[in-house]
Amino acid sequence: MSVRNVLIVGGGFTGLTAAIALAQRDVRVTLVDKAQAWARVGHGLTIQGNALRVFAQIGVIDEVLAVGQPEEGLKLALANGHVLAEMHTPRTGGDDLPPTIGALRPDLHEILVAKAEDLGVEIRLGVELASFESHDDSATSVLTDGTTASWDLIVIADGIKSQNRAKLGITEDRAPSGLGIWRAVTTRRPDMSGGIAFPTENDGRAYKVGYTPVSPTHCYVFVLCHPDRPDNGLEDWQEVRRLMENYHGEFDELRESIGPDTFLNHQEIEWIFVEGPWHSGRVVALGEAVHAVPPLIAQGAALCVEDALLFAEYVTGEGDLQQQLSDFHDRRIPRIKGVVDASLLLAKWEQNPGSRDAEPERVMNDALVALVPAP
Ligand SMILES: Cc1cc2nc3c(=O)[nH]c(=O)nc-3n(C[C@H](O)[C@H](O)[C@H](O)COP(=O)(O)OP(=O)(O)OC[C@H]3O[C@@H](n4cnc5c(N)ncnc54)[C@H](O)[C@@H]3O)c2cc1C
């Protein structure tokens, strides 16, 4: 094995999972993140079975299942409350794991940080990569804390807004998806098990709303909408309620539960897919730095942690490192492309409700079924 010490830039799902998987294979890992401290608040996520499979492989599944709310599927309804179908989510992580769980991002993050620290990963916060150089048998970094060091590999895991991607010669950049999203963490009745509602007309409000339980008492609600927040004088919570106004059934209760104290966030949804090489010499980009999709199949984090574990397996095996990095990339591309293509098609349909050829349920299901075989 030629890789013994690695610098990881970015401590999200990708960077932390890579750090854990490498440390478990006797690699010395230093991880830097520009955040001054880890955020303790954050939104809900739907974590699919294939992410849970990775969490099982890196030894954190018990902790993850303890903070998550398992779900077998979700209810598909029209905005007026009429239920169309119950969708059973394919078990992308195999029969031993739930098809999905809902959980709060900071809870999952905390589990990964604790595991990385237990394994001796050195984590340095408030630090960025100022510059790097790749040589035949090492890569050197200059960090913003003024230190210079030499590594067998540098991993760029700094997310969709990566400041380092272009320095690897990658010319693709993030692009708008045409969608924006509001997310709110709020209360739910215990029998409300998760669902999505589609609009019956294009009335300029929400393209779609949905919710996922994250605990026996709470859920996160998402509202897909136009990316621009209108300047209508409404406070954030009032704007979310306005966007949800025509959604009924369970969404009446969820809307009423949103108020001035609700934890809310609005963002434009962007995407990127780098089909060409992810590495240059001994510096490699992983996760959302090279592939991010509108979260319409909820596969973002799953693909990131799959990247991270598989990457660690490749680069700690016997063989030529450049060949390993190429083989790893070639193996990832078709799997990720399937999710990218399906997510972009779904994003197009979201913006054109009533498209005659729209089959969102089939496209979501097919994309997930394709992920059932291990990566
Ligand atoms: C609205 C929305 C909803 C989503 N919902 C889901 C969902 O339900 N299920 C799901 O699986 N996925 C979902 N995703 C996708 C998921 O959040 C991402 O796939 C995942 O978080 C990406 O992980 P990452 O580690 O690659 O990047 P990030 O999570 O972005 O982490 C990057 C890290 O790098 C650090 N960083 C950035 N720049 C630098 C720098 N220059 N130097 C050092 N550190 C740096 C950041 O502080 C951060 O800690 C959603 C995404 C969005 C936008």
From TrEMBL:
Pfam families: FAD_binding_3. The keyword Oxidoreductase applies. Gene3D superfamilies: D-Amino Acid Oxidase, subunit A, domain 2 (3.30.9.10), FAD/NAD(P)-binding domain (3.50.50.60). Residues 5-342 form the FAD-binding domain. SUPFAM superfamilies: FAD/NAD(P)-binding domain (SSF51905). InterPro entries: FAD-bd, FAD-dep_Monooxygenase_BioMet, FAD/NAD-bd_sf. The keyword Cell membrane does not apply. Keywords: Monooxygenase, Oxidoreductase. Coiled coil: none annotated. PANTHER family: MONOOXYGENASE (PTHR13789), PUTATIVE (AFU_ORTHOLOGUE AFUA_6G14510)-RELATED (PTHR13789:SF309). This is FAD-dependent oxidoreductase. It comes from Microbacterium horticulturae.
